Amino acid sequence: MISWDKDFKIYNFKSKYGPWALVAGASEGLGAAYAEALAKRGLDLILIARRQEKLDELSKKLINEYSIAIKCLALDLSDIAHVIEVLSQIDLPIGLLIYNAAYAPIGDFDTIPSDDLAKVVDVNIKAPLLLAKFVSKKMIENKRGGIVLMSSLAGSQGSPKLVTYAASKAFNAILAEGLWSELKEHGVDVIASIAGAIVTPGYQQAQNAKKAPGTLTPDQVAEKTLKALGKKPTIIPGFTNKLARFFMGRLIPRKWAISIMKQNTESLS
Ligand SMILES: NC(=O)c1ccc[n+]([C@@H]2O[C@H](COP(=O)([O-])OP(=O)(O)OC[C@H]3O[C@@H](n4cnc5c(N)ncnc54)[C@H](OP(=O)(O)O)[C@@H]3O)[C@@H](O)[C@H]2O)c1
User: Fold this and answer.
1) CB–CB of 170/151 below 8 Å?
2) Which of 25, 53, 165, 260 is the most exposed place for a label (fewest CB within 10 A)?
3) 25 within ligand 1 shell (Cβ under 6 A)
């Protein structure tokens, strides 16, 4: 049966954010869910991750199911200058950027090597910042487009054992809020998705990670975020996570919030 409402929404989404969407960190988990949610909306996709075979597998499935065009780029986002060079060469009209990749070394600050700390800055801060700069130039010229930056509830207060990752996620949330205001004047929508626990391979790999209350699937987070794009500067997917953020950020003293976070991250390794 034809759903005119659904078709209209898909058409609107594609004309606002198409024809190409770039998903940075797309080979599995939430990145792959974003890729599928965008394929359903008819956008062509540039998919970036380090593992070529995972990208090829996903790309084959999405082309079969949705008849879209896909360009897979096996690149490391920690070298963002090279990524931007490649994107400039292929020169495809990107109307939407989803920055999903993240690096999250777990452990006490004094035990994490300096190179790993620098990699958090490269993958979680420098890359989304410079990719947003790169794609927004054309978006501003075209007076349309969208940018989604992944943040985390871990970035709402200091998070022991994840201190640098948490700080990098705070950066993304604040960056998106500022860009939301500046770029909306040019017709470009920006949103930070401040997610709680998501059942991704990354989350499951963190040993002993118990399923936290309010845990969502990657599909749920991708859909809720894309639906909120253009409506507000930040989205906290899931009711329990909204409540948790309100409680931790507004109702209790900051030092209690950090202690609660510490209890949650203690079992991670
Ligand atoms: N999972 C959670 O519970 C949770 C909670 C709150 C917020 N978040 C946020 O949601 C996002 C995704 O979560 P996730 O960490 O669980 O990951 P994910 O979506 O399961 O996967 C991360 C993706 O990024 C790619 N990637 C990682 N490092 C890369 C690099 N240096 N260069 C290129 N690609 C890279 C990985 O592919 P390759 O390995 O093939 O490169 C993979 O496709 C992150 O921004 C995270 O901060 C997650």
Assistant:
1) yes
2) 53
3) yes
